[in-house]
Specification:
- The complex is a heterotrimer of chains A (176), B (653) and C (302).
- Chain A has 176 residues and is an alpha+beta fold.
- Chain A contains 6 helices and 5 strands, in the order ββαβββααααα.
- In chain A, strands 2-1-5-3-4 form a 5-stranded mixed sheet, with helices on both faces.
- Chain A starts with a strand and ends in a 5-residue tail after the last helix.
- Chain B is 30% helix and 29% strand.
- In chain C, α4 runs antiparallel to α5 and α5 runs antiparallel to α8.
- In chain C, a hairpin with a 2-residue loop joins β6 and β7.
- Chain C has 302 residues and is an alpha+beta fold.
- Classes of the chains: A alpha+beta (176), B alpha+beta (653), C alpha+beta (302).
- The interface between B and C is medium-sized, with 22 and 23 residues.
């Protein structure tokens, strides 16, 4: 099956088996280095990419469902200003994911930040119990125990603050 | 697949991709192997190996690819190399392997099999009178500590690329033991060691999964690259296994709850092939020595073979499981005398732990200081008795909580005996450009590497980024061993610091360049291991009354280390080791909104030269504290680790 | 990529309408291997890819716009089969019974829920989800499409008709090539709702169990209660007999009566579904006890 898609800003036309998981496609056909998970759909959570702007487990997406899609992997995301918001949170809190889950956990945090931005939530949104529960559930998706729940929530909060500060600087007004 | 002509593994005009066929059952003979027709794939079997079909690790060896006999489930049988992974995986699926159960345990070709070692015994006795008479007057506390073997699936692929160029064999692989990769590839391919180049890729090893298997995979990839005269990429899931361990312990105490005599029998199965069983015995026996004074003590450690995947090292080599058993025994002794474990420790942690060949004498009373603060913080004095009133009543689980503590000392690195046998080295160069290079055959791009850089720059008063260069030596004359058991963060820093000081002294009288080659292992140490840091930990758990999951609410830990560099980062890493130890013990972390899981971690520095690696100790003590808490919580005395909900359910009416 | 890939690459059909779907099904009569909704469960099966099977035909439902439609009125909501569980939870956060929302939330985290369709959840072969069981409990109706020669018919059935009495998925044995196109969830209120789940249904189905209960309450106790238990790899447990046991439970109930309730239900399970694991037994016991405690609290507050 011919699949045309954009990966990390590059338009590609690939001839792959239609049932090939996106994770395998990215690893083998696009040579994305940040994907080394091999759980084959067992939901280890270490193959997260942004598919059309939303985080997905790439091992659960077949090739026939990514036709004309836009995929962002950690390889290109790590060169963006959005990444800096999260990286700075890691640095300022002195907590960072291990090498094995760094890429996925970072993209998962980005997905949470985008959800907050899209929903245009106020400053207290992160204190909302349901939101926190949701974040905690999502952190558990990644089967790597290098980060406890509190640290993860703190990183999300700090990243969100960094993102808001940057948005204030860029637009001159505060975007809540 | 993208063209790799211009990438770093230069020159090959195309890539081939392969996967491994792994054995599905142990102890079988291969009766026939039928390869698929028209699969466009090339099989690589043991017959394709130009050199020796064997990987040598310390005193043991095992075949790289199974020849006619399968020893353990998961053993590589062949590699299938094809134009893409899909084809090679399908070819593997289409390969028909017929086997029959092996009737007699036969020796495998290609391995100089390491036999089971003799029982290692440590004993002392200061009993002058007739001991047998005394024993009858003493109270006897018997326990069995059982640690199940667990297969650790990292959900990660390890990928190796091998190619040949100008008579040299290149291998790209993530690993923690580059020497072993090089040695094995050379031996298997028939290339001279100097013509094998290992390019290590940064990796993070949670369970030492990057210690042994990468060498095996690299060797197979290299053989495929030679056979097919092209660049070959081979991929395989990365797993490791922890051994099954049984520790039977009997302690005799006098009427004041003071231990008089103790006998310990530990049996560990290390899988189908043994590599350094004596080292396992040494590490284990060191952990079996309890933190209380004894008139007489006998510890025996046996290592057995089994039909499981070999387990050389899985975050530990017996020390952690041994100290876990020692610390769980304290709770059982205290319980026998109706004392709280804290009261018992306060009463009996005094004097010196005896000097043995394995560890120097240790003052025991300072251990009280380590737990004093966390005992207050967690309100242990109130919680322990209030949880104790449950008395194992879990009939309908109205109330099931537990709190457990453990205290112990750490070791890091390998034993003096093994160090002497291996002669691992590193080299420090003071160059004409006034910078320092440290050459060693260990992965430089790692957290440990960064720590070493910082240590050297501090000691030599240099700029860390520009003046200190870590150099992954690729010469066959310098081998620095594996980056396991804290060899890099535990032993190398001390040696490096000593060498830095020597070099500084030399620099006063001589002009650079100056070179100092040093052994990375402390050979002047009178014992097998040095005491490296200490720790106290308290774990609070409850059993969920519906899911039956052992849920950990909080952990309080106080860790005494040597030099602390980057405290925040270190805390984060140690927290991970604690959480990991809990998960490996079967715990889940509390998600209760009012009481989410927390780790209260305090670090103390005792200005010891170099850096301690406390991973083995943390694993063991956290496991012990968790198990102590679970015993109080569930009322089940014979719990094995990991504790699964089904185990707790089995003890229900 | 290799030239050999094409040889085994499954053929994917992407109909835009139900009519096109029916046409494809008729044209490839008997050779359609799977209907692809969210695909989460199929992709998570071991050895899914690469599969040595050849001539595989897949119908991908993602382009059928009708399957995403949502219609609401005061009495019910009709939801297309391709609507994700997450969207159902968002849509129904204030109107759907709490039991359903809890069952959806317990399925997986949001990132996964966004990929799971309600149609896929109902029609997974060999796996019983707690969402499906709660939908049955709530008397959810299901519209099924039955392809006929050059045409198709629509038919509303009770959700339980997709399964046999023990929860085995039987839609395709009853109606050949049928597909679920939408569900109708009745807007209703209960005085008492309870939902609990334990274990990992997909990864470790032999240890997982969930319990859902809805009922009306009055001064006399429970009226018209309904109870369903889910064992992911075995099936559903629900019957009038069990509902009657609950209806006849004098409230507030003490521990002995709770134990009797548990024993009777366990007896029913053993008789109809066969043995369940010890951990499933103790988890079910814990849930029943928790549910009765909650019922007691409700009754005492009336």
């Amino acid at each position: 099956m011919k699949v045309e898609l954009v990966v990390d800003g590059k338009t590609l036309s690939l001839n792959v088996s239609s049932d090939k998981p996106l994770s395998e496609l990215l690893r083998e056909d696009v040579e994305i280095k940040s994907l080394e998970s091999c759980c084959h759909g067992d939901m280890c959570g270490k193959c997260i990419v942004l598919l059309n702007g939303k985080a997905v487990l790439s091992c659960l997406i077949p090739a026939f469902n990514v036709k004309n899609a836009t995929v962002v992997t950690y390889d290109s995301f790590s060169k963006t200003k959005d990444f800096k918001d999260i990286e700075n949170a890691y640095i300022s809190l002195g907590v960072e994911p291990c090498v094995n889950c760094y890429a996925s956990r970072t993209l998962l945090i980005e997905n949470i930040l985008r959800r907050y931005e899209e929903a245009d939530l106020g400053d207290n949104a992160l204190l909302d119990e349901n939101m926190l529960n949701e974040i905690m559930r999502e952190n558990e998706l990644i089967k790597c125990f290098c980060m406890d729940m509190n640290s993860f929530i703190e990183i999300v909060k700090e990243s969100l603050n960094n993102r808001r500060k940057r948005n204030v600087n860029v637009y001159g007004t505060k975007i809540s | 697949m993208a063209d790799n002509t211009n990438n770093s593994f230069g020159g090959a005009n195309h890539l081939c991709y392969g996967t491994l066929l792994l054995a599905k059952a142990a102890a079988e003979d291969i009766t026939s192997l039928t390869l698929p027709e028209n699969s466009h794939c090339t099989p690589i079997t043991w017959e394709d190996i130009p050199g020796v079909n064997s990987i040598q690790i310390f005193s043991g060896s095992m075949p790289i690819l199974a020849n006619n006999t399968i020893s353990y489930k998961g053993q590589p049988i062949l590699a299938m190399i094809g134009p893409d992974y899909e084809s090679s995986i399908l070819a593997i699926k289409a390969t028909k392997l017929e086997t029959k159960k092996r009737e007699t345990a036969g020796e495998e070709k290609g391995s100089t099999d390491c036999p089971e070692p003799e029982e290692l015994v440590l004993s002392w006795s200061s009993q002058k009178n007739n001991e047998e008479e005394n024993l009858e007057e003493l109270k006897k506390i018997e326990s069995t500590f059982f640690s199940k073997s667990t297969l650790i699936d990292t959900d990660t692929n390890i990928t190796c690329i091998a190619w040949e160029k100008d008579g040299r064999l290149h291998v790209d692989i993530p690993c923690k033991w580059p020497d072993l990769v090089k040695e094995t590839v050379a031996k298997v391919s028939g290339y001279q060691k100097k013509n094998v180049f290992v390019h290590t890729i940064e990796c993070h090893s949670h369970y030492d999964e990057y210690a042994v298997f990468p060498a095996q995979l690299a060797a197979i990839t290299a053989v495929a690259a030679i056979k097919m005269s092209t660049t070959v990429e081979l991929r395989s899931p990365l797993v490791n296994r922890s051994p099954e361990v049984t520790i039977k312990r009997t302690t005799w105490c006098d009427s004041n709850a003071l231990p008089i005599r103790e006998e310990v029998q530990m049996t560990a199965e290390l899988g189908a092939f043994l590599f350094a069983p004596e080292e396992y015995q040494r590490q284990a026996i060191t952990g079996l020595i309890p933190n209380y004074q004894l008139n007489s003590f006998v510890a025996k450690v046996n290592v057995k073979k089994s039909q499981l995947m070999p387990s050389l090292v899985c975050g530990s080599m017996g020390y952690s499981v041994a100290i876990a058993s020692s610390e769980t025994q304290v709770d059982l002794i205290a319980e026998k005398f109706e004392l709280s474990p804290l009261a018992w420790r306060n009463r009996n942690l005094s004097g010196k732990r005896r000097f043995t060949d394995y560890l120097p004498a240790i003052e025991l009373s300072p251990l009280k200081e380590i737990y004093k603060e966390i005992v207050e913080k967690c309100n242990y004095r109130r919680k322990w008795p209030s949880y104790h009133i449950q008395d194992g009543n879990m009939s309908f689980l109205d109330f099931s909580r537990g709190i457990g503590m453990a205290v112990g000392v750490g070791i890091s690195g390998i034993s003096t005996t093994l160090a002497k046998a291996t002669n691992y080295q590193a080299r420090l160069n003071y160059t004409t450009k006034n910078n320092i290079t440290l050459s060693f055959s260990l992965p430089a791009k790692s957290h440990s590497g960064k720590l070493l850089k910082e240590l050297i720059s501090n000691e030599m008063r240099l700029n860390e980024d520009s003046d200190v260069i870590l150099f992954e030596s690729d010469t066959s004359s310098l081998t620095s061993g594996p980056a396991i058991l804290g060899r890099v963060t535990g032993m190398l820093p001390k040696q490096t610091l000593n060498s830095c000081r020597k070099l500084l002294r030399q620099a006063k009288t001589q002009e650079p360049p100056l070179t100092l080659t040093f052994d990375v292992d402390d050979k002047v140490n009178p014992c097998e291991f040095e005491n490296k840091g200490s720790m106290a930990v308290i774990v609070e758990v409850y059993t969920d009354d519906i899911t039956f999951e052992p849920v950990v609410r909080s952990v309080w830990a106080n860790i005494v280390l040597g030099q602390i560099i980057d405290e925040n980062n270190l805390k984060s890493r140690l927290k991970f080791v604690i959480i990991d130890a809990l998960y490996n013990s079967g715990a889940v972390l509390s998600k209760d909104k009012e009481h989410p899981f927390t780790v209260n971690l305090n670090l103390e520095s005792k200005n010891i030269d170099g850096i301690c690696n406390m991973n083995q100790t943390i694993q063991g003590l956290v496991q012990a504290a968790f198990l102590n808490a679970m015993r109080q919580c569930s009322g089940v005395k014979k719990l094995a680790v990991p504790v699964y909900p089904r185990d707790l359910a089995e003890n229900q009416e | 990529m290799s030239m050999y890939t094409e040889l085994r690459s499954p053929n994917v059909h992407e109909p835009k309408t139900i009519g096109e779907y029916a046409e494809t099904v008729i044209n490839y009569n008997g050779s359609i291997n799977s209907l692809w909704a969210g695909g989460t469960y199929i992709m998570s099966r071991p050895n899914f890819y690469p599969s040595p099977a050849t001539n595989v035909e897949i119908i991908n439902l993602k382009d059928i716009e009708e399957l995403y439609r949502i219609q609401r009125n005061d009495r019910f909501s009709e939801i297309g089969a391709m609507v994700s569980l997450n969207d159902i939870a968002l849509l129904g956060s204030n109107i759907f019974p709490k039991t359903l929302l809890q069952a959806i939330e317990s399925t997986a985290c949001r990132l996964i829920r966004e990929r799971i369709s309600v149609g896929g959840t109902l029609c997974t072969q060999g796996f019983n989800s707690s969402v499906s069981s709660v939908l049955i409990l709530l008397d959810t109706a299901v519209e099924i499409i039955i392809p006929k020669k050059r045409n198709f018919t629509r038919r509303w059935v009770h959700g339980s008709r997709l399964y046999d009495k023990n929860g085995k998925f039987v839609l395709n044995t009853v109606f050949s090539n049928a597909m679920v196109s939408k569900i109708r969830i009745v807007i209703q209120n209960f005085d008492f709702e309870y939902f609990k789940t334990a274990g990992e249904p997909i990864k470790n189905p032999s240890e997982a169990v969930s319990l859902a209960v809805v009922s009306k309450l009055d001064q006399n106790g429970v009226s018209s209660p309904r109870l369903i238990i889910t064992f992911p790899s075995i099936g559903f447990v629900y019957s009038k007999d069990i509902d009657n046991l609950l209806a006849n439970l004098p409230l507030p109930a003490n521990e002995n009566r709770t134990r009797d309730l548990y024993r009777n239900i366990l007896g029913y399970i053993k008789e109809n579904l066969g043995p369940i694991s010890k951990i499933q037994q103790v988890r079910l016991r814990g849930m029943l006890k928790d549910m009765v405690l909650s019922l007691n609290q409700h009754i005492l507050s009336l």
